[in-house]
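=== Structural record ===
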Amino acid sequence: MRNRVLELLREKKSSFLSGEKMARMLSVSRTAIWKNIQSLQTDGYIIESSPRRGYRLVKIPNMLFPAEIIEQFPVPTKIIASIPEKIYHYRQIESTNNTLKNLASEGASEGTVLIAEEQTQGRGRLGRSWSAPYGKGVYLSILLRPPLEPRQASLFTLLAAAAVTKSVLSILPGLNIGIKWPNDILIDNRKVCGILTELKAEADLLHYIIIGIGINVNFRKKDFPPELTKTATSLFLANNNREIARPKLAGKLLWEMDRLYRDYLAGGPQVVLTVWKEYNLTLGKQVTLKTVSDSFVGLAVDLASDGALVIEDEKGNKKRFHAGEVTLRNWAGEPDQPIP
């Protein structure tokens, strides 16, 4: 009901709409309309009221409410966040991935999204923590149940990285942004986004995939922990200290994820690899790749069909890597500062 009241106010734009007319249109009482208006006002919507003319929507809060996110879709999505009820919004949560795992185990449908204004225990790859202060970023997790084998799940990290990059560029065209294998989103060699993909599977059965995404949107320099001030950045800083509308970015991201996911199911791995390569910062570069037990230096020459990075050493030997920490090397052959 609240979403329907908001939709009516939005349709009227800057004009007033009477509570009596809304009540008739929605087949509810005027008291119900008034209660939903109050609820919207409590959440930060600026709604002007007039005893004779009704209500008028004046300003929308920069909050990640489902109705505001879906409003950004150019056309409706098919799977991810296809209806507002598929988006769970939290003001504060420990971890969007962990909570969505619980929902997945309870039977949540494919395309369910969990989004938060703040994470208190956000996680990155290799167990690293992820700074996620209130109202500064886009922190969300997406539940997918693809009809694939577990070994095919590795491409979803690349798919998410491509979707993030496309959504950022749709808002900030011309930004110097790209992807360092497999999923580090960098702006001028500083990390702006983290992606954590987790799954539940048996030997030959994939139950679900959860893709967690955290984007530093309106972070100021003071919002970063001291150890990240030289390696991390935000869209706010990259946009000459101008704020980004977070609902708009979240909407663009979910829409791109939905489109890429459906294209992948229809067209196979090459769809993901082609889009990822459009924004790649790794292929054609000298790199150092560190695994748990070893490191390998060479030229990053290609991606395998499963998303593995192919590196060629100075003797022409090629090796595929499915995981590891990549450090890009500059023109003098010295490694750039690794991105955490």
Notes: The chain has nine helices and 14 strands. Residues 331-340 have pLDDT under 50 and may be disordered. The first strand starts at residue 46 and ends at 50.
